[in-house]
Specification:
This protein is an alpha/beta fold and about 400 residues long. It has a domain at about 1-75 and about 100-180 and about 270-355: FAD/NAD(P)-binding domain. The chain contains 11 helices and 21 strands. It has an 8-stranded mixed β-sheet with strand order 7-6-15-16-17-14-18-21. The protein has a 6-stranded mixed β-sheet with strand order 9-3-2-13-20-19, covered by helices on one side. It has a 4-stranded mixed β-sheet with strand order 1-12-11-10, with no helix packed on it. Helix 1 links the parallel strand 2 and strand 3 (about 30-35). The structure holds 8-demethyl-8-dimethylamino-flavin-adenine-dinucleotide (RFL) and P-hydroxybenzoic acid (PHB). P-hydroxybenzoic acid (PHB) binds near residues 48, 49, 50, 214 and 222.
Length: about 400
């Protein structure tokens, strides 16, 4: 067995784990990041696309926004669609802010490159990772691979290993309370080699189901269709996908999405989930390991950044001033933001999707609510301020 020592052992090299490692480095705190998958896999995983105003500020202040500023697309609003008619919600006018469209895998590439150039200890292809003794004063992370075992001794463990990781699962039963809601649908997402033919995202309500028009760059479009929860992707040939997108996204003014070669497709299930608290002894959960939101509000990666920002600040206070108060309140501070993001993501999801078992009355109410958002400055402002991101203490 080979032994290593560091101040913070981080499980997972997604946005949460990588960003935490970088922020800790800026505070002069050492960390080792242990990732089950390969670097190439992490850098190619297509997921989120929308960064809140404060997430971009965080990346900028942390010296990570150089490529984002060059290549990210600034969006000053979104469009909502109902019966082929679009209404624009202007973030700039309603909040003075904007969001930035920049792929999660680009954020991950930037973070990995920066950690490595700063001499960071990132270990990919770790295989079997397990966490131990986090209720004592020296937690350990073990990595077993090809018959060898490494042991990382640390002061704290950060479980940043996503919803399917081992950190949350390793906590003793009863340590956490889970709050959960599932949805009777999923999203079928594609990445297409097609220049976006709209400047902003279009969230379309349609009686056949929700559709979302998004993008990644001046030559790549990202589109989603509401589908069944167990949808078989093999049943969705390229022609069927484009035909359904054309039906759902069609607008009264004749606009429809530009088609192109489909580069990637996949089905994402929808879930709302929170594990409370985000701490057990010297193990802290952050990002998707602790909470999941349905993607309609574009909040997942942004919440992950907010968690690790607070965690890095709390750890810095502990190492600088021997003051553990920040660590003790980490969970409750994060949860305030997490539940507001849960509320917003559920609201956006309920507003825009077709719920198969809704009564005729429910459907009428849903349309009334959508029309209200589209016509009331007050409600549109509430949407805008949540979409661009609620204020984060310190930004
Ligand atoms: P991640 O990204 O899942 O990273 C966790 C990492 O941990 C590794 N891992 C392990 N490592 C070691 N040992 C183990 N046993 C391990 N088990 C797992 C994994 O390989 C991985 O590298 O979690 P993190 O860092 O918390 O980041 C969260 C975000 O990825 C997630 O919230 C977003 O992608 C959600 N999301 C969106 N968020 C936004 O802010 N804006 C969006 O526009 C947005 N759109 C989306 C989304 C997620 C989507 N999908 C596919 C779920 C759109 C979609 C379709
Ligand atoms: C995306 O571009 O992947 C995206 C955009 C907005 C969402 C979800 C996903 O709400």
């Amino acid at each position: 067995m080979t032994r290593f020592e560091t101040q913070v052992g981080i499980v997972g090299a997604g946005p949460a784990g990588l960003m935490l490692s970088h922020l800790l480095h800026l505070h002069g705190i050492s960390s080792i990041v242990l990732e089950a998958k390969s670097r190439a896999y992490c850098e190619a995983r297509v997921r989120a696309g929308v960064l809140e105003y404060t997430s971009v500020e965080m990346l900028r202040v942390a010296g990570l926004a150089e490529r984002l500023e060059r290549e990210g697309l600034r969006h000053h609003g979104i469009e909502l669609g109902l019966n082929g008619v679009r209404t624009r919600i202007s973030f700039l006018e309603l909040t003075g802010k904007h969001v930035t469209v920049y792929g999660q895998q680009e954020v991950v590439k930037d973070l990995i490159a920066r950690r490595l150039s700063d001499g960071g200890d990132l270990r990919f292809d770790c295989g079997d990772v397990s966490v131990h003794e986090f209720n004592g004063s020296m937690p350990k992370i073990r990595v077993r691979k090809d018959g060898n075992e490494d042991e990382i001794c640390c002061d704290y463990i950060a479980g940043c290993d996503g919803f399917h990781g081992i950190s949350r699962e390793s906590l003793p039963s009863g340590a956490l309370t889970f709050y959960e809601r599932s949805y009777p649908f999923a999203w079928l997402g594609i990445l297409a080699e097609a220049a976006p033919s709209r400047d902003e995202l279009l969230y379309m309500h349609h009686e056949r189901g929700f559709a979302l028009y998004s993008m990644r760059s001046p030559s790549i479009t990202r589109l989603y269709l509401q589908c069944g929860p167990d949808e078989d992707i093999m049943q969705w040939g390229d022609d069927r996908i484009w035909s359904e997108l054309n039906i759902r996204l069609a607008c009264e003014d004749g606009w429809h999405p530009t088609q192109g070669k489909i580069l990637q497709k996949g089905v994402t299930c929808m879930r709302s989930f929170v594990a409370e608290p985000l701490q057990c002894g010297r193990l802290f959960l952050a990002g998707d390991a602790a909470h999941i939101v349905p993607p309609t509000g574009a909040k997942g990666m942004n919440l992950a950044f907010a968690d690790v920002y607070y965690l890095a600040e709390a750890l810095s206070r502990f190492y600088r001033e021997s003051d553990a108060n920040g660590l003790d309140s980490y969970s409750s501070i994060c949860l305030q933001r997490i539940w507001k993001a849960q509320r917003f993501s559920l609201w956006m999801t309920s507003l825009l999707h077709r719920f198969e078992h809704d009564s005729a009355f429910d459907r009428k109410l849903q349309i009334a609510e959508l029309e209200y958002v589209m016509t009331s400055r007050a409600v549109a402002t509430a949407l805008a301020e949540n979409y661009v991101g609620l204020p984060l203490h310190g930004f």
